[in-house]
Amino acid sequence: MTVIDVSEADFEREVLERSRTTPVVVDFWAAWCGPCRQLGPLLEDAAAAREGDVVLAKLDTDANPRLASAFGIQGIPAVKAFRDGAVVAEFVGAQPRPGVEAFFDAIVPSEVDRLVAAGDQASLRAAVELAPGSADAAVPLARLLLARGELDGALALLEEVPAGFEADGLRARIELQRAGELDDALTAIDLGDRQRAFELLLAALDETAEHREDVRRVIVGELARLEAADPLARDTRRRLAAALF
Question: Which one of 15, 25, 26, 36 is the catalytic residue?
Fold first, then answer.
């Protein structure tokens, strides 16, 4: 279903919860609003053209004043795009068709996004071909190659990727593997035992002066994969700072 009507009774379910799996564009409108009548068909056409990738929800501000107030609606038409339960893009006032199309293009998953979400090696390779410098595609593919022992292939992929915590961490990990260093810590990472991995890596900061920077980058790269509020991440960041400074 591309277009739905929503109200205060079902907004949380139909917009906030639904947006965790599919982007939802909400058209805040009213029957008396001339620009709303002009914009509405353009929004509906854009949503229909992206069937399955986005949902358009229409909310009558006169019938749902508390929601309009909660989202700070001061003028209509007002359009807000939701992803993962939060507003990620918005505009106010009637827009020409090209502007509406561009708005939708910015919030629906791209082909690269879809391939990365699939996560298998063939899809990730296709994503890298479409966007060679994309860390979102290259980093998970490099991890798959590393798991198969293809260090040179993984490093070649990462050479196209700009500096970033995860990419830098993987590059550093490859250097450590080539040097035959910290095999137990790297194996713990592969097994998902991050607590043991961090313990071994933190200890190595004091024991392995030659590879100290590579160890630091591996730690930071693995921390980037954890939620900021994760207790293990918080504790490891504190200990890393103490070890470095």
Answer: 36
